[in-house]
Design a protein that fits this description.
With 438 residues, the protein is of the alpha+beta class. Among the domains are: 191 residues, no CATH class; 87 residues, OB fold (Dihydrolipoamide Acetyltransferase, E2P). The radius of gyration is 35 Å and the shape is rod-shaped.
Length: 438
């Protein structure tokens, strides 16, 4: 999520500091001594020292190339390769850094501490050396994943050094473990092994939960699994937003869009409430609690298939999870015939009637009501609706566009009142009463 320039500067700093200040227990390559390499000639030693002490990275690499050409089997190769990768760090040539770290890791004489340090440096370089457009991405990702997992094995097998405090060792292991898991995750993602990517990001977050970019990437991997792991993915994206991932507002819009595609709710406005609830719930938990779910489009389709005005009113009035799912399904849904009792008529303009009414199932229920529970926005072209009196009971059709659970209240739009329930003159009863046969 960082810019490439920022990432490159950050990596150069990390690797340069690692080269200078690697812990003693990590087995950094020491300066060569001629006496320790009796097979090497004085000329060979001097040639290496000339390359080793050169400050200009381009000139250093030229001297190292000349040395390797002249002494391909030199006892100083470990020192030479060590100089190579550091010179390429200075030049920001990351694939060459990896090339020479691999050469070091292939040397049989390398001790376990040095191997561990080079596994780490290789892992830290991978994402800077390769991206989704790299022509050799598959091969590079396979090697990066395998190397990172070998690094984890090396770290787990490495004993706590006697000179390290518990705090130092814990910090060291946390840093290295997190990097190895992150690299294995990124490489797996490039290989389209999304489950392995999500698992490795999850493992990294188990070590260090304050990694918003890891949560973001884990969420993306979850959503690309086959089948997609929607709930885990949504939760991880919400965690990333809570942790202030870069471009958090864009990630929030992305999360909203993904929930919309997964759910296909009746009203898009319900998505904002769901995102807000998800952000609140995920603030203090790395994983969703057992049994947590977000209704899918299939769940909502089942509700719609069975829905009628009687079941919908019952479900919405009951509140709780059932009401939430029902509302997601029926919001903006059209109902052909419902029953209402008028409480207040708003006739500010001829074509903009709003009736405050109690909506229910039976006349007895409505007669027993004491207050409205809905706004009925009358569709244009029904001026005769003004002839309805207060306390009139009438049938209507329309779509539910708003709902609050407590206090229970609905908004209906595009309402069409049954003409048979409208009196010919104000103050008279209609020719046909709702629910009564002529």
């Amino acid at each position: 999520m960082k810019t490439m320039r920022t990432r490159i500067v950050a990596l150069a700093a990390i690797l340069a500091l690692a080269a200078c200040f690697a812990p003693a227990w990590a087995g950094s390559v020491p300066e060569p001594q001629q006496a320790a390499h009796p097979k090497a000639t004085r000329a060979e030693y001097d040639a290496y020292q000339a390359a080793n002490t050169e400050k200009d990275p381009q000139k250093k690499i030229a001297l190292l190339d000349a040395f390797v050409s002249k002494y391909p089997n030199s006892e100083y190769l470990s020192y030479v390769y060590n100089d190579y990768w550091q010179a390429y760090v200075a030049l920001k040539q990351w694939t060459k850094v990896i090339e020479y770290l691999d050469k070091l890791l292939a040397l049989p004489e390398l001790n376990e501490g040095a191997k561990l340090e080079y596994y780490y440096r290789r892992a830290a370089t991978f994402e800077y050396a390769y991206n989704a457009k790299s022509p050799d991405l598959a091969d590079a990702s396979t090697k990066a994943r395998d190397s990172a997992l070998e690094g984890l094995k090396a770290l787990n097998a490495f004993p706590k050094p006697a000179q390290a405090t518990d705090e130092q060792w814990a910090a060291f292991k946390k840093q290295y473990t997190t990097q190895f898991y992150n690299t294995a995750a990124s490489a797996s993602f490039y290989l389209k092994d999304y489950k392995a990517a999500a698992d490795n990001y999850h493992a990294a977050l188990g070590v260090d939960p304050q990694q918003p970019v890891d949560d973001y990437r884990m969420g993306i991997a979850d959503l690309q699994e086959s089948p997609p792991q929607y709930i885990a993915g949504f939760w991880a994206l919400a965690r990333a937003i809570n942790l202030k991932v870069p471009d958090a507002e864009k990630v929030k819009s992305f999360l909203r869009d993904k929930i919309q595609q997964y759910q296909l709710p009746g009203c898009d406005s319900s998505l904002d409430a769901q995102v807000s609830e998800l952000l609140t719930l995920s603030q203090n938990a790395q994983d969703p609690p057992a049994g947590y779910s977000i209704p899918s489009s299939a769940d909502l389709a089942k509700v719609r298939e069975a829905a009628n005005i009687q079941t919908v009113l019952a479900d919405l009035k009951a509140g709780g999870d059932k009401a939430k799912v029902t509302w997601l399904a029926v919001c903006n849904g059209q109902f052909p015939e419902a029953l209402a009792k008028a409480y207040e008529m708003n006739t500010a303009t001829p074509d903009a009637f709003v009736i405050k009414a109690a909506v229910g199932i039976t006349e007895d229920e409505l007669n027993a009501s004491t207050a409205p529970n809905a706004d009925l926005k009358i569709a244009a072209g029904q001026p005769n609706v003004a002839r309805l009196d207060k306390d009139s009971i009438f049938r209507f059709s329309g779509k539910i566009t708003g709902y609050t659970p407590d206090p229970f209240y609905m908004t209906w739009e595009n309402v069409q009142v049954n003409p048979e329930d409208i009196p010919e003159e104000k103050g008279k009863k209609p020719a046909k009463r709702p629910g009564k046969k002529p």
